[in-house]
Amino acid sequence: MYPLSVHYVNKQAEKSLKSIPVTKARELLDDIELIRYGIPPLNGDIDTLQSISSKVKELRINGRPAYRLAYVIDGPHLTILHAFKKTANGRDKENLETVKSRFNLLY
Questions:
Q1: The model's pTM
Q2: Residue 77 sits in a domain of what CATH number?
Q3: Buried b / exposed e across 63-73, counting CB within 10 Å, b at 16+?
Q4: Using N-to-C axis directions, what is the helix angle for 11-18 and 93-106, rounded to 10°?
Q5: Is the distance from CB of 103 to CB of 51 less than 8 angstroms?
């Protein structure tokens, strides 16, 4: 099964990652590279976005601000749904709606 191939759900998902500062985007992508091979991330931790689906995972790098990358693993594919900067406590409704709509493109 490993390594997983990495894809973006659409061009907007790819653009969302490019909107993050290069150093944080690199940390997220380094962790995605580890996840591809079944290795736990070094820079962040993983949570499941149950409010959307048990399939949707969120790679979290905490700090001020924090950064998030939502993805789905389906068979041999890891599909990136959205990446964003998180500045407030609690869930970010706008970004969760983006993740949900992009997840719905797949399923």
A1: 0.94
A2: 3.30.2310.20
A3: eeebbbbbbbe
A4: 140
A5: no
